[in-house]
């Protein structure tokens, strides 16, 4: 559903253009669609007709995708492969990849602002939250701190601050935006904020653990790269055992917060399990 | 006024951060503030209290500034100097410059969405127009076409298509958004759209002419670079005389459209003269 909708949104751009091809390439190169799935799961815990949340879900995936395209650039993480496929700037070129990222970011806000199913107020709230989560108070700040932390010893607190900004805020947006569009009560929004805070950290710990214990074929990328790059990770700070223990503690806290909402028996519950145990 | 307001908006970000410093640097490195001035001038043709248009005016300058930071990158135009000052990636580094651009773009929408003086409907209309003008149907598409046109012979029509996307759309946004916030009648908005279409082209022709006839000290950058880079320009396609003639034709059309609006005697009229005759 999400892939079809992304294709639909992208086809409203000039199809012959190199820019559109480059934007579309990074969607076709795979991805778990985790953020839109979380958004739709959160929405479905409160409302049936998922159509109302579809545009925001795809807009969110556009922002995530732009961030990957820019993160992979030679000046940033300098990655040639992503999900087992050549990265955007390897297939096109650096200039095109920079512009494709810029375009996806801008188009994301354009799509939300033009969504015919949302009220002006709903659109503005979503844009307020999404811009904050992804901009200089959120994801971009996290990426900056992450680059500055490279090859440096960081504390657990510093590591978590980076993750909360870099990945946590968009995950939180997904879950809160979905529930908001589903007319969840304020009390549920508060608990879902707490739930998604821990879910973001669980996601990151599992990422770090998989870089040590994961299967390269399943992951679509080489493991052990964190150690090679001297990256600060949960296992590096806490040891593998400690990281697993920390993850379990967060899983407990996440489930506890979720259990206080109407979403307690929803697909979000199963997704929490999946994210905790995932092998890629 | 605009500089003060930009400073104010930037100070709401983490001041100690490298990201904020990099974002702020490119504002301090000068600039004509043409787009916010056009927006405020257009607003003031209809309303007195300019406060209502200030946040949108600064948000627009943020988008313009992000586009310059990204355009200057080594993978794009590879410029070491802008307005006589080292470019962002020369002072910081490429990764920081990419992120500062991403952050300014995102923050621009955040600032509009949080403006307490605008209604939900006004904010959404502005975000619809601004995202369209600056995204894959506007400025970013223009920059992509501009890069593709490098060292290629283009027709006048192709050249103007690039300019309309790359610079024209944001200039049009400035003028239409200002008048819209000033509650201009629909008839005026239509004529102002036409006016700003020609104003954008005038601005570009003058840019091309100055690259041949301009004074390097006044410009803060070397002249003759278009010819060195084999860039397609109005003088290159039409000759210097032909370019001047084309400019005068557009000035006539712009003034004619402006004269049909309540803004005919406004500061926009003087700005048209200024942009036509400017020497830097």
How is this structure best described in words?
Two copies of one chain form a homodimer. The first copy, chain A, is an all-alpha fold. The first copy, chain A, has one domain: Orthogonal Bundle (Farnesyl Diphosphate Synthase). Helix content of chain A is 72%, strand content 1%. Chain A is built from 14 helices and two strands; from the N terminus they run H-H-H-H-E-E-H-H-H-H-H-H-H-H-H-H. The longest helix of chain A has 28 residues. The mean pLDDT of chain A is 95. Chains A and B meet through helix 2, helix 6, helix 7 and helix 8 of A and helix 2, helix 6, helix 7 and helix 8 of B.
Stretches with pLDDT under 50, minimum 5 residues of chain A: none
Strand order of the biggest β-sheet of chain A: 1-2
Structural class of chain A: mainly alpha
> What is the chain-wise order of helices and strands of chain A?
HHHHEEHHHHHHHHHH
| Amount of beta strand of chain A | under 5%
CATH topology of chain A: Farnesyl Diphosphate Synthase
Indicate the radius of gyration of chain A in whole angstroms.
18 Å
Whole-number mean pLDDT of chain A: 95
CATH class label of chain A: Mainly Alpha
- What is the number of strand segments of chain A? 2
Instruction: Count helical runs of chain A.
Output: 14
Which sheet architecture does the biggest sheet of chain A show?
2 strands, antiparallel
């Amino acid at each position: 559903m999400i892939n079809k909708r992304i294709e639909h949104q992208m086809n409203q751009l000039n199809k012959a253009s190199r820019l559109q091809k480059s934007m579309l390439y990074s969607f076709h190169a795979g991805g778990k669609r985790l953020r839109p799935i979380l958004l739709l799961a959160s929405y479905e815990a409160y409302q049936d007709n998922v159509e109302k949340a579809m545009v925001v879900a795809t807009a969110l995936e556009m922002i995530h995708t732009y961030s990957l395209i820019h993160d992979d650039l030679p000046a940033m993480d300098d990655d040639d492969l992503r999900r087992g496929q050549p990265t955007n700037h390897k297939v096109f070129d650096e200039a095109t990849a920079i512009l494709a990222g810029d375009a996806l970011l801008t188009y994301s806000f354009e799509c939300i602002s033009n969504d015919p199913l949302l009220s002006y107020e709903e659109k503005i709230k979503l844009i307020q939250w999404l811009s904050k989560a992804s901009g200089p108070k959120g994801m971009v700040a996290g990426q900056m701190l992450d680059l500055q932390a490279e090859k440096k010893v960081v504390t657990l607190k510093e590591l978590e601050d980076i993750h909360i900004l870099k990945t946590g805020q968009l995950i939180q947006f997904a879950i809160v935006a979905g529930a908001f569009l589903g007319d969840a009560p304020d009390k549920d929004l508060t608990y879902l904020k707490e739930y998604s805070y821990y879910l973001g950290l669980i996601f990151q710990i599992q990422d770090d653990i998989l870089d040590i214990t994961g299967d390269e074929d399943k992951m679509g990328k080489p493991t052990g790269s964190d150690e090679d790059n001297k990256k600060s990770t949960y296992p590096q700070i806490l040891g593998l055992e400690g990281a697993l223990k920390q993850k379990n503690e967060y899983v407990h806290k996440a489930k506890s917060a979720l259990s206080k909402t109407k979403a307690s028996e929803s697909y979000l519950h199963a997704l929490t399990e999946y994210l905790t145990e995932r092998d890629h």
